[in-house]
Each structure stands twice: as C-alpha cells, then as structure tokens.
Amino acid sequence: MTDCIFCKIIAGEIPSTTIYEDEKVKAFLDISQATKGHTLVIPKKHIANIFEYDEKLAADVFARIPKIARAIKASDPKIQGMNIVNNNGEVAYQTVFHSHIHLIPRYNNEDGFSMTFQDNTEKNTPESLQEIGANISEKIED
User: Where is the HIT domain (predicted)?
Assistant: First the structure.
C-alpha cells in the first residue's frame, strides 16, 4: 500500500531506527518514544489490524515478540518491566492502519507512561459473565 507510512518504512522510503528485521517482520524505534526504547513490531505484509491475521502470520509475528522484548530489556539495566500493546481500530486508539505491536519498556511508576483499566466488578454477576463468555466462545472458529 503506497500511502501507508509503515509500508514506506519497510521499503526504505522513510528512515527508521531498525532494531530487528527478517523476511516476515521489522522492529524499529517508535519516533514518539513514550519511554526510552519504545519499539514497534510490524508484519512486512500490509494488514490493517489483528482481525486480518491468519494463523501463519500470527505465528510469524508473535513468535518474534519475546526475543525482541528480551533484547530491549537487556539493553538497559534500569528497565523493570514492559507493556505490550496492540491497538485495533480507531476507537481503540489505532492511528496507523498497518498492524503494529508496541513494546514499551517500563522504568518505574514515574516514567511518564500510564494505562488505566476501569474496575467494573460491581456491574457484573457470575451469570452475566457466563453469558458474555458463552457468546464469545460460540463465535470461535476452528
């Protein structure tokens, strides 16, 4: 896709700081650097989001995440953890519509990065959770 910024990065039309690349994926530093070492891992095949992955592409991309994450962690002894984030769709804060996984090193609770998960425990019952789970389970395709 010629107007995709990530496809242009893969093609070498836009410079990037590549930290890993093979025939299936490219990993490069996010220009925004939410924290030092913030890396994006992208499939070289243009797909918009997680909903377009098949099993083979998912295996190719996600199998590489741990070794890239370990390399990032090993690069700085101050790294204490890592958020792995994948936004899918505009409502989920996806801004570049070429699938990408953020590897965001965490240094401490004051490193400037945050995520918030709302606690909706009081809004659910065991029965409503069973109903939600059953609805999802019946949609899983083999």
Answer: 5-113
